[in-house]
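ok here's tRNA-specific adenosine deaminase:
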Amino acid sequence: MIERRWMERAVELARRSLEEGTYPVGAVLTDAEGRLVAEGRNRVLPTGDPTAHAEVEALRGAAAWFRAQGGDRRRRRGEALTLYTTLEPCLMCGGAILFAQVGAVAWGSDDPYGGSHRILQAQSHYDGHRGRWSRSRTFAEPFPDLAREVRALMRQWEERRGRLEEFAWPEPEEAR
Ligand SMILES: [Zn+2]
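and the structure:
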């Protein structure tokens, strides 16, 4: 089940990234019971690390969470996890999501400039929990008002960089 409160939390984290002068993207991972596992936000520009995307940070946090749980290494799989990210994952994060075998991915807004939606839908991973090949379930723009909020953040960011003409970030309904 996709819960609004976690997408709202991801938007909060995205806002914090914008305040820190980098791409406004936030991500939250929850377990099968809908409890918080890890959070992340974009830190690319403050750290100079091109891989410091919100989703990667959250997945690293989840690895620490799994280690802290101890137990069987085989249980350290992502199938039971749900990833909430403000923006459709990029190619790198889409790959990381597949390698982590994340069961469900929800994003606040589609990314018309480079999302990995098609890759996530085309690729499967071995789901040890169910004993079969499985795909990450995807939920694009589940909350229309939050989709608009995410795009407003992206517009603010592009405006700040003077690239709003290149990356216009239309309202979700205009893009369809
Ligand atoms: Zn990414």
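+1. Residues 53, 55, 89-90, 92-93 surround zinc ion (CB under 6 Å).
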